[in-house]
Input
Amino acid sequence: MSLRLPTTRFQAVLDLGPKNAAAVPPPASLGHPDLYADFDDETGQSSLAVEFASGQIHLETVDDGIDYHFHRGNGSDTDRSPWPASTTDPVVTWASTLLADFHLRMPDLLEDLEDAAAWHDEGYDLYICEVEEPTKLDLLTVDIEGELLTLPWLGSGHVDHAHIDGDNHPIALLWTAGDGEPDLPIAEARLDPVTELPVTSALPGIDWTAVGLPANEVVSWLEGIYLNHHVLPDAVGTLLTAVLERLGGLEPAESV
Output
């Protein structure tokens, strides 16, 4: 049985800026969406993924506004909306406004979230952002899941992991016998789309004696690494979800 750190309650007081999207919510009949957003420091672009059970819309900021495209509920590509026009129009309006609200606060808000996560990691239960003048602030309360307790790498040499091409977010465990950069793939892990749990496999042709651990122990160790880094939401991800829900006028998923 794997041990994990306890879930902790954390509060953050943040400057979220205007909440224009909250005034134009998506149709309630679609249910609660999963929300993901990111900001690219190099390009200055923001992106947003809105994933309902019945369909998805992915958006990104461009020089002259916002581009978007659709996916089916299972994530597969489609060249048209998965919803009728009466549903598509309010979804596009809400999601575009939400991305615009999010982008307006970049990169400062993301930096605040990273600072808040650092405070959480140090054991504090409250973070308050800095403001230069009186500003309306929002209090967010989240439950941050604890990580699995994993052992350090106990085999020989050194390991690292990296994303690889393929479906369902695969990663490769890379190994080297010496002190150099790990570059030999010895195992892989990916997400099972049905169970949403990691599936791991050892790669053929590996000298497990040289690796210093048997294949079954390597894939078991990789499963914990995958869960911590790619499945269990970290503090920044949990706070970001709460920010997007507040900006979008949504109740937290657990309250729906």
About this structure: The first helix runs from residue 85 to 104. The chain has two domains: 16-144+233-255, 158-231.
